[in-house]
Amino acid sequence: MDDALDDLVATVTAFARTLRAAGVGADHERTRNLLEALDHLDVTDRGEFYWAGRLTLCATRDDLPAYDRCFAAFFGGARATLARTSTTSITRHLAAADDGESGGADGEAAPATASRVEVLRHRDVAGLSEAERAEVHRMLAMLRARRAPRRSRRYESAHRGALDQRRTIRDALRKGDVARLRHRRHTTRPRAVVLFVDVSGSMAPYAETLLRFAHALVRSAPRATSVYSVGTRLTSITAELRHRDPGTALNEVSRAIPDWSGGTRLGEELREFLTRRSARGAIAVIASDGWERGDPALLGAQLARLARQAHRVIWVNPHKGYADYQPLTGGMRAALPHLDDLVAGHSLAAYEELSERLAHA
User: For strand 149-158 and strand 183-190, is the pairing parallel, antiparallel, or unpaired?
Assistant: First the structure.
């Protein structure tokens, strides 16, 4: 029974984590409520599990469509395999997990035995089977990539803030008296992201997954996201990624990119981008392993230009996910002095962490 209980808690915790990545308010308290509700239900009944999760894990009506998509992708045709167990046992199990794992980044209980999906979140996508990679891609399609807000130049009316002299005077002229002072404040908008995806031969095991992450970014903020493929030439693929369906978007991208699995001349391509366009105020994200065929000095010089424009420069390297990784390639050595962050990009968990970083940058 203890193993079965561990499996249930692991599955529910992993499902709640997937929901949070999709923007659903499935926090730790709601997860605990679901586990307690399951004590009174037949968890082998798919319908009962669905409604228990929907009633406990969703915070608002807006969460319901995302919950349905996550439930279908996470559980598919699978059935829960645990018979009823006591609420006391579940509560005691969660309390023990809290004591042992309270140092986690999100402050939630970590299961003693990870579910299959939870294990999959941390595996290198380069080593996944076709079925496992498809499951990771389904999870990425549900990712709600939030953005840090930035202040815009536009104003909106407000109860407090700076005095809106124009509206105050206009009201006074219309009414013959200053009835009340009008105020205004700056509006906010999502901070722009410019993403460069390396599609060279050395990045082939990761390119499709990175492009699916790019699709999630574009879908979340179409007007604030620009995506380019980099290899032997710079290619804008933002329009192709605006298709709602990930499969259709990836097919369009495949046709648009002329230099799949070639070399990487990132320095030349950044120079081309900075000559024609701008990343001013945006978060610049470069997804590459740093195998630069061009002059590393040119790459360093262009990254210095990019760093002066951008709000933040983040380099995503798939190999950074390994403990023994060292940035020894010429491209990485040239890039390091100009980066704000060097992060991993090898797994679903790494992309979720990158999404959180963009939400708070």
Answer: antiparallel
